[in-house]
């Protein structure tokens, strides 16, 4: 089954649109181009198989409790400082995955680090 990827509102949708627009117009910074490529690759894997080994997908219970539905974390990067993580849910419909967050890996999840992550809403 192939999943339909949706960007959460407002944060994820705004960020993705900004990256796409600047990439297409060739006005993207090197750091943003790197993020765009890594995120695009992760989204491709996610749409094909949310449990792809390269994504290291797992549930984050503190975000699940806060958001009111299972929140999953997948890797964009690994073994690098400030390695980015993508947070997502199966919603709003069967076959949809909504990206609700993109942040560096929290330094220490024992001190409420996941509480500081801004999560987008599911578009209606």
From TrEMBL:
UniProt-recorded name of the protein: Uncharacterized protein
Sorted UniProt keywords: Plasmid
Highest taxon listed in the record's lineage: Bacteria
